Amino acid sequence: MTQKYLPLKDHETPVKVLFTGYLCAVGMGYFFALLQILFTHGMADGKFGLSVDDIVYSYYGNRSGTVLETQLNGAMKENATEDQRFKIIQWVRDGAELNDYKSTGIAAIVEERCVMCHSPEAATGVPDFTKFENLKALAAEDTGATFSSLTRVSHVHLFGISFIFMFVGLIFSFSETTSNKYKCIAIGMPYVFLVTDILSWWLTKVDPMFAWLVILAGMGMGVSFMFMWVFSILEMWAYRPIFIEGGGIYGQKLKALLAATFTPERRAWVLSVLALAMDKSREQWVNTISPLLKDLLNRLAKRSDGGA
Ligand code: HEC
Q1: Torsion sign (Cα): 60, 64, 66, 70
Q2: Do 150 and 202 meet the contact criterion of CB atoms below 8 Å apart?
């Protein structure tokens, strides 16, 4: 039977190196993107780790407070002492008046603690606190992401991420161990999730109920990415040990790979590292992911109780 495309394992080594280099770079990019999400959105509610509250605060806002207050209790918490944060919040609640700005010592705190980052010289895209009106503007009700920031991030994401998945999907389309049906799913899903993701930001801006959709779409994209990534790499570099000699079942495939690659001592070391990783991920599950899912289910339950 003639093949309509060249399977991944049969590509010339230089092409495999190119594909692998791209996949590794993009994989690292993904990792840093997750870290960034953890440090920006993850801190929105003041607690480390991503939760539904973080998503709600980021997009819908914390409507019982002001932007300054939310930030001082969230992502900007570490930038001032307890006392200084309290003073600023007090001043904001009292109306953030220019008259009190200097006399209550807020100007000095901002000068000392905030301006090193919040000035035109320090960074672009961060509000400039050397101008009072910029600070004042943030003493208004916190309605989450602004329309303009959402449009900006939306188009950047749509263009950027579709490019990433274009090439990851193209590389993966040369794989031969996944049936056509599942290939179509794995290649198509990221685009469905990408559009859902963007849409869910806008929906969450309108109604906090949609925060769970942000998380779901993000996870969906991550899973499709991992799937394509792993199969592409394995087919290029470990086709024989895994897909021919490995037998049918997953565990056997992995054992075969280990046996082919590692001596017994090294294997024991790898297994101990794997065991440690499993332990850590179990911990992560218990401490972060599981409460997050519980919280999500609770909210949905509350929502359907109260909403109907
Ligand atoms: C280490 C640098 C740094 C310091 C110090 C810092 N900030 Fe920020 N701040 C940032 C960055 C970066 C952002 C943008 C974060 C983002 O876009 O997610 C930001 C965002 C904010 C925002 C949200 C702006 C918006 O448009 O939503 C507020 C409010 C804020 N900071 C207040 C403060 C206050 C008040 C202080 C001083 C107590 C302070 N920051 C100190 C780096 C800093």
Answers
A1: negative
A2: yes
| pLDDT > 90 fraction of the chain, expressed in percent and rounded | 39
On the 0-12 / 13-18 / 19+ scale of CB atoms within 10 A, 55 is buried
CA gap 212, 102 in Å, rounded: 43
* Identity of the residue numbered 307: G
Q: What is the Cα–Cα distance from 66 to 91, expressed in whole angstroms? A: 12
Q: Return d(Cα 82, Cα 151) in angstroms, integer.
A: 35
Cα gap 73→252, rounded to integer Å = 50
Site of tokens 């590692």:
262
- Distance from the first to the final alpha carbon of the chain: 59
Ligand 1 atom nearest 41 alpha carbon: 18
Q: Is 71 in the pocket of ligand 1 (CB under 6 A)?
A: yes
Sign of the torsion formed by the C-alpha atoms of 38, 116, 76 and 69: negative
> What distance in angstroms lies between residue 236's CA and the mean position of ligand 1's atoms?
45
The pair phi, psi for residue 79, each rounded to 5°, is -85, -5
Model pLDDT, residue 183 = 92
Q: How far apart are CA 59 and CA 62, in angstroms?
A: 9
Task: State which ligand 1 atom lies nearest to the alpha carbon of 80.
Answer: 38
46 vs 61, more confident: 61
Question: Atom 16 in ligand 1: which residue has the minimum CA distance?
Answer: 40
CB 35 within 8 A of CB 204: no
Cα–Cα separations (whole angstroms), residue 121 to 71, 125, 251: 21, 11, 55
Q: Which atom of ligand 1 is nearest to the CA of 138?
A: 29
Q: Specify the length of the chain in residues.
A: 308
Q: How far apart, in Å, are the Cα atoms of 251 and each of 12, 160, 234?
A: 29, 36, 15
- Å from CA of 69 to ligand 1 middle: 11
Which pLDDT value is given to residue 3? 62
- Look at residue 237 in the predicted model and tell me its pLDDT: 92
| Residue 198 burial (CB count, 10 A) | 19
